[in-house]
Amino acid sequence: MQAWQVHENGEPSEVMRLAEVERPTPGDGQVLLRVRAANVNFPDALLCRGQYQIRPPLPFTPGVEICGETEDGRRVIANPALPYGGFAEYAVADARALLPAPESLDDAEAAALHIGYQTGWFGLHRRADLQAGETLLVHAAAGGVGSAAVQLGKAAGARVIGVVGGAGKAAVARELGCDVVIDRRAEDVVAAVKEATGGRGADVIYDPVGGEAYTQSAKVVAFEGRIVVVGFASGTIPSPALNHALVKNYSIVGLHWGLYNTKNPALVLRCHEQLTELAARGAIKPLVSERVPLEDAAGAVQRVADGVTTGRVAVLAQKGAGA
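^ thats the sequence. predicted structure below, dont judge the formating
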């Protein structure tokens, strides 16, 4: 089969190589899946760079989220078991963690429903307890993680403010349903949020960026607000001033979604059932901005790493898949 492999750490476009390799052999409790579509995530770039919290042995195949097909023909969503990731024609995954792919979504959309939307659901509902009528601020609102949070926030009845970088991404954020869109390259984010909220600030802030975005969040979080720390796509991990959280009376909430797979897997399944229902009635729909063939996977991962994409980029591992 064909699979992309990383033999040394570095930038995805430089270290990912397409090769002809043997199909992986499932271990105990694992199944072999025919990959239909693999979604590109920022962690794929971190894996290539050797900067992710998990460092699989070299060589490995990146690709942490797929829509695949079991030997008996079931279409499923899975997180491949590294080092046999999803940017290949076949991958292996934990049999107990397979989730049914929603019938309302095609392969590329189904592949993109999992990590970003699960993270959004757990962050907004489980950790931040977002309520209808509250104001939700989403950083990187046009990206893969941010776009999921925007849709989930709207589905929950929140007023959503999206922060983006550039006019093109601003247009995408509006199409996603943001009530207010702020272009950080052209506007003062803090002043714009305060103006949009009458000086009150945002009740919940969803931050997959870190760095300057977190600094802005601390300035615009409302009384009893919650800042959900999802990741650090900016490359800078902030150091919160806890005295500031005390005097402004807000919460800083961390979210590591992957832990739920071992700490509370039943909750992951319940979340998937809710996401499937939301997708069935059209309340959420993954924004797949690009669908590329397997041979173009390295370039796709690099574009996501460079922050120039919107929504999700899907790699179609089988010809004719994803439509």
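The first helix runs from residue 12 to 15.
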